[in-house]
Amino acid sequence: MRGIVGGSGLGRVLVSCGIVACLAGGLDSRAGGGDYVSTTPPARPALEDKIPDLKRARQGARERLADPQCLAVLTDFASVNGGRLDHVLRASGRTAQEQLDRLVFESGLGRHGCDRGVTMAFTQIHSSVVSICLRPFTLLRRPEQEAVLIHEMLHSLGLGEGPPESVAITARVLARCGP
Fold first, then answer.
1. What contacts 10, CB < 8 A, 6 or more positions away?
2. Whole-prediction pTM
3. Rounded-to-integer distance, Cα 160 and Cα 88, Å
């Protein structure tokens, strides 16, 4: 063992590569192909696959964003850079549904933003990663869940918070996008 750990740099590199290969999916022996190291990380199920409420909420939010009345919520807010969110979205070349589809949901379990039980979800401005506070989120009615996801999509476009306050953003989404 001392020869591997304390030995040549080549030995350490080979051991490290072997460990990385195992963690990344292992070695794959293909017929006639020899050893093959997978460069694709093992697939993780999306949070939506584990939380049906979240999957339904994304689909419902997509449907709501197809309605021009709901879509008008983008005209109600400006990005931290000063441009209206509908202009930011247009400049991106994406539809509101495509922007919503870019969001990646992760569990907020144990994260500081979810520790008080009053936050449903949170993200950072311009980020496509949204932490979902699973317990409070799943207790909401479906229209409110959908509004929360649209709210987080607005942050992904550059909407800041405080002002407007989080509750005011979601209330505006509900007013525009209906119950």
1. none
2. 0.75
3. 14
Amino acid at 174: L
Which DSSP string corresponds to the chain? -HHHHSS-HHHHHHHHHHHHHHHTT-EEEETTTEEEE--SPPP---HHHH-HHHHHHHHHHHHHHTSHHHHGGGGS-BBTTSSBHHHHHHHHT--HHHHHHH-EEEE-TT-GGGTTS---EE--TT-SEEEE-HHHHHHS-HHHHHHHHHHHHHHHTTB--SSSPHHHHHHHHHHHH--
State the Cα–Cα distance between residues 75 and 84, nearest whole angstrom: 6
- Print pLDDT tens along the chain (179 aa): 333 334 444 333 333 333 333 334 443 433 444 454 445 444 556 898 899 999 999 999 999 999 999 999 999 999 999 999 999 999 999 999 999 999 999 999 988 888 877 899 999 999 999 999 999 999 999 999 999 999 999 999 999 988 899 999 999 999 999 87
* Domain spans in the chain, listed from the N-terminal domain onward: 2-37, 47-177
